[in-house]
Amino acid sequence: MLIRAAVTRAVGAPLSIESVSLEAPRDHELIVKLVACGICQTDVAMHNSPTRVPRPIVLGHEGSGIVVAVGSAVRKVKPGDHVVMTFNSCGQCPTCRQGIPAYCAHSESVNFSGQRADGSVALNCNGTPVHSHFFGQSAFATHALCTELNVVPLRQDVPLELMGPFGCGIQTGAGAVLNSLKVASGSTVAIFGVGSVGLAAIMAARIAGAAKIVAVDTQDVRLAMAEELGATHTILSVPGVTATDIKTRVGSGLDCAIDTSGNVGVIRLAVDSLATLGTCGLISSAKGADISLNVLQLMLGGRTVRGIVQGDSVPDVFIPYLVDLYLEGRFPVDRIVSYYEFDRINEAVADMASGKAIKPIVRMAGTA
Ligand SMILES: [Zn+2]
Ligand SMILES: [Zn+2]
User: Fold this and answer.
1) What's the mean pLDDT when you consider all of the chain?
2) Is 365 a residue whose pLDDT tops 90?
3) What pTM was computed for the model?
4) Distance from Cα 99 to the centre of ligand 1, integer Å
5) CA 297 to ligand 2 center in whole angstroms
6) pLDDT at 310
7) Ligand nearest to the CA of 40
């Protein structure tokens, strides 16, 4: 079928919306007609990287929409179902078999190779292959091909256009608090970096009943939003801020800290601010940077530093849970999103970079 997709071509060039053709679904695949797709920092990083993904490619990995076609072996969903797509996994490796798909042994190939396991791609432009299957979806398009493994059925009474980010950024922030660190009622938690992922963590910390919820960021506007969403303390992260400053402001060390910034100095600050037996979760890859930590401080205090992917989410379980919280008014994700029509996708990317938009979502509904 012919679809419209935002294609990443040359480095530095904007996304270009083009007509491309999409293959029919294979046995375990299905096609989703997109209603909307969130834009995540990972999309921007891949778009700007000369080597991280093959080109040309269609990015986008926070797609939501309606199932329009299913392969012969698909049982999980049927045409007409409302769904969100999430990260992909292989379903076969030891961690997938343990029900922990976020740490799939084949995560790199099934999310970033731009093709199926057999090397084929699902998209072409006038006969020239275009890489597909980014995060098992390539959802900057009017239609996307995914599999049963990375599609999550939704209840029909939620606004579909809001649901895409639940498949990545929102579950990442909320899951770090609720699944990975299991933030306890009455505890002290700080989120370093309150973009969309960090703000999801702030909202989740309130749901968890944390007594002190600390937002640390370089932008006043984000700190103000964090305060509206549940932060009890906000700290402007300026050069020279120390762990002692943070502990003084908060009145204690941190039981839990979460870094979303990927900034090595900020990670060190987060770890240094931990209370005895505190844990620091690292959500950002920090572009693969090394960090230096004090072993004595970690050891004597029984402190933990751990990496977290996708908030340890089991999407089929965790996303419906978050959706219920949203509908109960306890998880107001709608407060942090800005909508753009699909043909304004480059403006949405620019607004995310400038801080004008916290979580941009592009809508495909009106795209011919
Ligand atoms: Zn796997
Ligand atoms: Zn993402």
Assistant:
1) 96
2) no
3) 0.97
4) 9
5) 33
6) 98
7) 2
